[in-house]
Structures are given as structure tokens and as C-alpha cells.
Amino acid sequence: MSLFSRRTILSGAAAAFAVEATSSRAQLGSRAMRIIVPWPPGGITDVVGRVLAQRMGVELGQTIIVDNRPGASGTLGHGIVAQAAPDGYTLLVGTNSTYAMAPYLFEKLPYDQEKQLTPIGLVVRSPQFLCAHPSVPVKTFADYLAYVRARQPDGVSFESSGPGSSSHLAAELLMALGNFRMLHVPYRGGGPALQALIAGQVNVGFVDAVVALPMAASDKIRLLAVSTTDRVAEAPQVPTIAESGLAGFQSSTDISMFAPAGMAPDLVKKISGAMLNALKSPDVRDALVKQGAIIVGGTPEEFPAYYKAETAKWSKIIRDRGIKM
After folding, report:
1. Is the pLDDT of residue 18 over 50?
2. Parallel, antiparallel, or unpaired for β 33-37 and 90-95?
């Protein structure tokens, strides 16, 4: 199935979540709320933002629109929300590539993650599949390790959606734990990177589940292993990298919700409650799980511990591997 048709189906599914809100539900006012998605339409972050916007609108009795603001590795959208009024009308759905990795990759950011943004909670994790072009003579992760080690340092190439992206850093973590090297070929975004892999211009790459699953189903790429600690429900036959020989490996595209700093605690609680209730909806859960997402549904109170661990992990990889934008 094409990416376009998947987005069309998702849009229809998301629209089905919208029902008449009763007057007893919490009201913020007459203005429409917006969720900033700092990436182009069609990716997993956009899917999560649109599904949440529909269901959270029901929970809050509000109209919520999705506003895609891609650019500068997601930092453009983050900057817009960081400078918005903390009145509940502007929210952010961002990824760990921006809130946990970008601060250690860029010399200067247009915002301060810790001072200008309030966490609402970790929403979902999107697993990444280590994928190979069908022409690469490997069918398992063990095959891949033997193949790449016999051809290092640059006999095997890997794609990424750009220097410092989550797909790039996942590969850097893989090489660090596996003690081998590959040739990095960065592209300007996940779409061009995927096309390069499908065309055989590169050998392997980490691809988000929402894209990897349909491409593998049509035999355009081969799934070797998944990056998370647990297997993916939509592809249970694909083992994790950790269970395949690299203990301790874990990587994912984590998607969290934020608001501008300074928001009143009761408003943070209200929005967090709407997000958590939305994620409990069977329709929402079904729509997201079908994209390979792992639903977390974290709270504002749980976020600091997660954020500390995530930033410590990726800042070390960035520093040890000498990665710069």
C-alpha cells in the first residue's frame, strides 16, 4: 500500500473519532487549539498528532487543528511553541531527536528545552527496523553482522534522514555496541533516505515502523531486526537487536507532548488528562498500534526521569562518536 493511501485511510479513521462534545466537558474558550507538528505530513509524528487532535478535541470539548511546521531538524516547530503564550491554545508533539538529541548537536537553538517548554507526557514510541535492500545477501541480523564486519570500514553504507537524526544516531549506537564501521550517507529527510534504500543506492538503514512495515510487505526492503526491547505486534516474527546478539541496544523515535512553560498547573493537568484518556480509546489505540507504535501514555510527573535518562544516553553517543551538525 502506498504512503499516500495509508495517510488517506488514517485521515478517515481519525475523522471518525470526532463526535459531538457535551457541555459537561471541560472548556478552554471559543478559540481553536492547535498542535504544532515540527515535521512534514505523513510521518509517524504527524499521524500521532492528528489522531490525538481528534480525540483530545472530544475530551476537551474543543476544536483542535494540526499545524505542520517542519524545518531545521524539528527545532523550528519547537521554537514556535516555546515562544507561545502558556494559555493552553498551543501544544507541541515533538520527537526525541529534537528534545533529547538536538541540544547536543547544535551550537545554538532558538529555544531552551528545559526552561521554555512544559512536558505534558511521553505519548508513544515508534520502533525502528534495521532494514536491508533485497540485493544485500543477508536475511538475519547474524548474517548482517558477519557481512558488515567483513567489509568495514566503508564497504557497507547506511542511510539516514540527516546528520544527528534518530535514524543516524541509532546506527551510531549499533556500530558502537557492535564494534564495527559503516559508511554514513545522509539525506534531507526520511522520504529521500527511504527512496535511496529502496533503489539500492545504500545497503541498510533504520526506518520507522510506520514506513518500514508496508515497504517490507511489498518486498521493497527486508526487515532484519527491530530496535526496541520488545518485538512489534505487527511483525512478531522479527527479533529485537538486543536478543539477536547486541545486548543493551535500544532505540526508538519517542513522541512526547509539550506546552509552553509557565502554564497553570490545573491546565497542565487538564490537558494531560485529555491526552491519557485519548490514548485509552480503543479506536485511538488501534489506529496507532497498526502503525507499529508502542503506546506509553506518560504523565508530566514521570517525564523528568525519562528525559534525564534519554539525554544522558544520546549525549554520550554524540560526544563519544564525535557527531556534529
Report:
1. no
2. parallel
